[in-house]
Amino acid sequence: MPIEIPTDLTPELVPLSWLIGEWEGRGRLGAGEEDSGHFVQHVSFTHNGLPYLQYRAESWISDDDGAKLRPLTVETGFWALERKLQEGDGGPGLIPADIVPVLRTADEVEERRNKDGGFDLTVSIAHPGGITELYYGQIKGPQIQLTTDMVMRGSHSKEYTAATRIYGLVDGNLLWRWDVAAEGKSLEAHASAFLHKVS
User: What residues does the THAP4-like heme-binding domain cover (predicted)?
Assistant: First the structure.
């Protein structure tokens, strides 16, 4: 399945372009064993001309056939190539970016490849309950590996110390797995899903 790159995409987002769109599908909680719970999920990756993707994932507990039973959770965040921000970048807050992006050409983006042939990536994801994850990792073609650098928790949040996520594009479908260290346990399987593109 060919990947279409939007014509209005800033060059910096081309390595992430295969994520852009709406994805839906089903998953399993935990390690996906026979007694693991089922869920359905809708994920969107969008862009607005700035050098990051906006991410939103909404999930529902489901029965074995995929019928929604009740809401599970929502998470939202931002995905971008990892690099030192420059004067031409926007922020903090409402400080506007220059009209011309900092990385203007495909050649300038290619210069950012790491020693493994991929691109370093930073991802921040916020959850209900006062938890935000900051991930670092890499994107190499249609594969992403992320590891938390920091988990920020509110004073009344549940204990949560670390996580890893992997994403891959397989036959046009988005597969992902999330491992979590929480509630006194070391890193273990938390959830996984198989999503198909809907737009």
Answer: 12-197
Q: Which residues are annotated as a binding site?
A: 158, 190
> Does pTM surpass 0.85?
yes
Q: State the Cα–Cα distance between residues 67 and 26, nearest whole angstrom.
A: 10
DSSP element (H, E) containing 107: helix 106-110
The predicted-structure confidence for 178-198, as pLDDT tens digits, reads as follows: 999 999 999 999 999 999 999
Q: For the chain, what percent of residues have pLDDT higher than 90? A: 91
Return the exposure string of 114-142: e unless at least 16 CB atoms fall within 10 Å of the residue's CB, then b.
eeeebbbbbbbbebeeebbbebebbbbee
Q: Is 94 exposed, middle or buried (0-12, 13-18, 19+ CB in 10 A)?
A: exposed
